[in-house]
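Let us work through a complete example step by step.
Step 1: write down the sequence.
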Amino acid sequence: MTARDQGIETLLDLDASLLEQEAGYWIKIEARRVAPTDFIPHGIRYTLTLHNQHGTRVLGYDNAHAVKPPGKFKFAGRRLPYDHKHRTASDKGVPYTFDSAQKLLEDFFAEVDRVITAASQGGSK
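Step 2: predict the structure and record it as tokens.
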């Protein structure tokens, strides 16, 4: 995160938001400043989730826990990423590269649009 990340204030302003979407979907956003750490160097703890009409999370971007990168690599001594996304209700998470809060919001809302559009067209996502 840079000092010029204009999206930080937007993300923080969206904290505790519930945003209705089409077809019964809804978004929940939580974001707060925290002391920067090795795991959260940008100093923002966030959870952005999309839920279906039954309340099931179908998409999420967060940094609440570490995730293992895909592949069959040994993890001993490696730093596991905290920034990640859950692509489906059952996805345990894949790494997400946090460039800025603005990019996080852009990526999340683009993915929300894709998921809702695919669902309305009969797709699985």
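Step 3: interpret the result. The radius of gyration is 15 Å.
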